[in-house]
Design brief:
The chain is α/β, with parallel strands linked by helices and 384 residues long. The chain has 14 helices and ten strands. Strand 4, helix 2 and strand 5 form a beta-alpha-beta unit.
Amino acid sequence: MTLRLPIPGGGTRAYQPRTEPLAPAAAGPLTSRTVFSAAHVVADPYADTTPDGPAAVDWDATLAFRRHLWSHGLGVAEAMDTAQRGMGLDWSGAAELIRRSAAEARAEGGRIACGVGTDQLTGPASLPEIRAAYEEQLALVEESGAQAVLMASRALAAAATGPEDYLDLYGHLLRQAAEPVVLHWLGPMFDPALEGYWGSADLDAATETFLDVIAAHPDKVDGVKISLLDAGREIALRRRLPEGVRCYTGDDFHYPELIAGDDQGFSHALLGIFDPLGPLAAEAVRVLDTGDTAGFRKLLDPTVALSRHLFEPPTRYYKTGVVLLAWLAGHQEHFTMVGGLHSARSLPHLARAYELADGLGLFPDPARAESRMRALLTVHGVPQ
């Protein structure tokens, strides 16, 4: 059946949904790249909540989605910005998410890394308070048995007076970390409060500070996650990392070329777009495991249009499209988000996300996806 999809500025156009999904190859371990999917949380639609109140999470559906990712050989990057960390999910909710997901990872034999930040701080904070907040979260993640991802801190961005404050604080955290961590550089397109991170708004100067942190403690840095949406900058930084320190691309615009790499190296991956792309992304990496770079690109390159759409400015609201696609794919029974974030994107934006995902064959049951999209359009007053 034909859907009438809204177009910006008014009116509708006809779209003919596909009838057959892709059939990804059988799951198995990924060998040539370490690949994490940052995973979303599923809200409890029956909870009587407010946008600024504590998040109400459907734990069964949330953990089931993580099992879905592990079943395809992907690692889970937990309690990061894809999980609405700082955009609907506070530290109390994130701490519970880390505990539950880490326990599930142990039971399933899945790989997990969890975000460590300072979001228990609710106002201006001193550097000692910021350090203590990081320490509290690092201790919880390590006690859970998960790998730690040291995330960028809004509080630190506000309190630091220059590069020396970053060098001192990160050095302290790395010295006390029990196992090598992932350092996360999240650009201001994902969170405007992180402008000037590493002590400078000049990205060249910030890069030098970032590299100085790594060079001082290479044995405590498993890798770095770069989320600047600048492939050239990531490649240049990747080539300067100490031996043994991985680069995990967080570039949701250029990930196929960065993961494929060149004759001087490649990036591993820690990506929010691999939440909706999980099975297809895993299949592509398995093709790459055989040495077939062209086959890898043939599978993954067509997904970039969807990713660029979901992550279009304001980029931080990409989570809305991710959760829409999870609902359409049958991973949850509703399109509701913690903090009311399901209202953060326009109906034309969501309709285009559906069209692009359907064209890629991402929905295991295209008829169900069509029916759910039709219901969403109808409740928004789009005649079908």
